[in-house]
Design brief:
This protein is mostly helical. The protein has 5 helices and no strands. It starts with a helix and ends with a helix. The mean pLDDT is 90.
């Protein structure tokens, strides 16, 4: 799997976990991230990756540990090179 696919999958997993923890809809998650519903659905399905601004919103609005998130991204990239 290519690095960009692994990054999308890593983000997808984190979004799903957080949305499940909060018990909110995709539509509400999209609103909180300042995205369209369709844009959010593409992130959650792993069809696209987000902007830096959206990552910052995710970290800030959902009490996400940025260091842990970027560590997961780094591991995903390293694993794609093997």
């Amino acid at each position: 799997m290519a690095a960009n696919e692994k990054l999308k999958n890593c983000l997808r997993k984190n979004l799903l976990i957080k949305r499940d923890e909060l018990n909110i809809t995709q539509e509400r998650m999209a609103e909180l991230l300042d995205l369209s519903r369709k844009g959010y659905q593409k992130l959650e399905s792993g069809k696209s990756f987000c902007s830096g601004e959206t990552l910052v919103n995710f970290v800030n609005n959902f009490d996400v540990d940025a260091q842990q998130l970027f560590s997961e991204f780094s591991k995903a990239i390293e694993n794609s090179e093997e």
